[in-house]
Amino acid sequence: MTAARSAPPALDRIRVGSAPDSWGVWFPDDPLQVPWRRFLDEVSQAGYSWIELGPYGYLPTDPARLREEVDSRRLTVSAGTVFTALHRGPAVWEATWEHVARVAELTQAMGARHLVVIPAFWRDDKTAERLESEQLTPEQWRHLTTGMERLGREVRERYGLEIVVHPHADTHVDGEANVARFLDGTDPELVGLCLDTGHYAYCGGDSVKLIETYGERLGYLHLKQVDPEILAEVVADDLPFGPAVRRGVMCEPPRGVPELEPVLAAAQKLDVDLFAIVEQDMYPCPPDQPFPIAERTRRFLRSCGA
Predict the structure, then answer these.
(1) Is 206 exposed, middle or buried (0-12, 13-18, 19+ CB in 10 A)?
(2) pLDDT tens across 39-96, in order?
(3) CB atoms within 10 A of CB 13
(4) Among 87, 90, 114, 136, which is most exposed with the fewest C-beta within 10 angstroms?
(5) Dihedral angle at the C-alpha atoms of 24, 25, 30, 33, nearest 10 degrees?
(6) Is residue 132 classed exposed, middle or buried when 0-12, 13-18 and 19+ CB atoms within 10 A define those classes?
(7) DSSP string, 219-284
(8) Does the bond joining 262 to the residue before it have cis omega, within 30 degrees of 0?
């Protein structure tokens, strides 16, 4: 006789959702991407209730129309996403705010509370062109931290949203050292953290350690895994992020790292409500590929207690 497998602990502070990224969507408009109506249909059919907006312009930007589209599929928006290059100093503020304001206005109109902020890439995610140095100067670090604090203050005051900064491969806020430097250099009242487990592992970080060290900064989660064998090839070849994704470095859970059960358990211990949005980078991908992966991933996360 064998003992029955014990049920996983209930992760009652974790709200699981998905995003256009898990349907191979990186750009507002691209012929290689799944059309937005199909994304909305399939993410609902896969059993998710929460979604992100994805790149601004992929989903309808008219709030009334978007509300009708998501409500008809019993979906709710958890966050919008913006891209910034605040390390370049005050000269980029006006253009940055123009972009942020559009996204924040739509995010607010959809009833969401978070704005995911991704720092600028130092090499292009589509062409792999090197755009600037991968290391910031001390002055650029000051621009980045003070600019992000200003962004957090303005977004909260004007739109009632909280910003959560997303460490990302091929940006200046990526692995353990740079993430710690960024968090230590910014006001926790103004700047939160969106931990993407896949990007952090891609850059050599330990997600559980980060949660245990900077748990008070964690405001949002992206759930993702990397294939360690392909990652080793990517590192050895110094491959940019876009080509790495095309090689399959981001993989379907639970086939990769980090293990998501300990990450979710560490997040649950914080005793705060958190969104955990599934994101499996796979641009470009065949249009029939995302849906079965989304269904399997949701079943896997339910088996973890989410």
Answers:
(1) middle
(2) 999 999 999 999 999 999 999 999 999 999 999 999 999 999 999 999 999 999 999 9
(3) 15
(4) 90
(5) 40
(6) middle
(7) EEEEE-EE-HHHHHHHHHHT--HHHHHHHT-EE-TTSSBS-HHHHHHHHHHT-S-EEEEE-----S
(8) no
